[in-house]
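Weekly modeling sync, notes
Attendees: AB, CL, MP (scribe)

Item 1: holo prediction request
CL wants a bound-state model with magnesium ion before deciding which constructs to order. AB pointed out that an apo prediction alone won't tell us much about the pocket. Agreed to run with the ligand included and paste results into these notes for async review.

Input as submitted:
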Amino acid sequence: MTETNTTLTTQPNMANRPYNSITPPTVPMVTQKRDLLTPRRFEDWRLGIPFDVTIPTNEVPYIIAVGGGKGGVGKTMVSANLAAKLAQAGNQVLVVDFDIGGANLHTYFGLGMPKRTLSDLLHPRYEDNGTLFQEIALPTSFKGVRVIPGSREDAWHIYSNWTGDLFHHVWQGILLARKNLGVNCVILDLGAGIHQHTIDFFAAAHSGVIVVLPEPTSIENAYMFLKAVLWHLVSNSARQLMMPDEQINAIKELLTSEKMASVLGQGGYLGRLRLLAKRYPLLANKIFRMLQGREIGLVLNQARCQKDIDVGKSMEHICKNYFGFLTRYLGFFNYDDVAWKSLKNQKLLVADFPHSLLAKRISDVAMKICNTRI
Ligand SMILES: Nc1ncnc2c1ncn2[C@@H]1O[C@H](COP(=O)(O)OP(=O)(O)O)[C@@H](O)[C@H]1O
Ligand SMILES: [Mg+2]
């Protein structure tokens, strides 16, 4: 890791900082990220997608999901600004607001309350009216960025009716975005919590970005989120192998039970998965392939001191060695008042304060997402 990644150089009085001193790096195209898009990796990636979802070959855009389990940690700030940075590099980006009930992605782009939103696709009332994903996509003032707004309206109704069927249009919309919208990169701005659909979409990403604050509650939620993702991959593998429910439950017990910790030692889930391989080699092989087909990037947001930054490093270690994910600490974002100032100005941070340290860090993370070879 470079010096700039490990040292927090912000001053306490952020309001007086000059914003003209930092030139953000040039971000490359996501298509340069070939290592995750090779045929072998494609196969490993597709193993993690729910099996009732049809995947078009060679037409899938690069999918980045931004999650983390907790609300208010900066997921939307990261999604929106990342989209702008990737578009600046020449990508055609679609950002989807999955925070049903707390949708505010459109606000980050200075857009008013949209007339048509994701709930038009999810509401049973609209299910068969031919509303297409691409019709809802709104252009933004950023060339190359479109958004699918989420909705606060009908949120309870939608939650209570979430079924796989209702999500059919959404899955198709994302996976066919390259063909239908000319989009080569889709960013999923996920909501808080570990609802099954939130986890499904996170697991569907080539790059899953976990945004975490250096606070025990946020760190705890991030681990719960990752545990849910891992379990999603395990149960997906078991279902693909047509394992009966009793066997799946026994495997879940083996992987998650606290009682087993004393029997299995301290190897974490990765250690337990290795043990599983002895009894269920086919299953373990599938799980390990799924783990190879996607990567987890960690972003430590609102860092105020070196200790905060180090939290990201130790989480990287745990994600790799305890959970078994291909993991990379993408870097930290300093706490900076420009985050709320730009929101108040109804502008995107990277446009409103392009020379701020935070904007530079967002560029750094975008560059790492594009270039990472784990
Ligand atoms: N690095 C940062 N420094 C200061 N404030 C931040 C930073 N990142 C995010 N925020 C603020 O935190 C709040 C929540 O961010 P948001 O992206 O909406 O969270 P989430 O989508 O995870 O619920 C916003 O008011 C945003 O301006
Ligand atoms: Mg949000």
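Recorded for review: The domain at 3-216+294-371 is CATH 3.40.50.300 (Rossmann fold).
Action items: CL to compare against the apo run; MP to circulate these notes.
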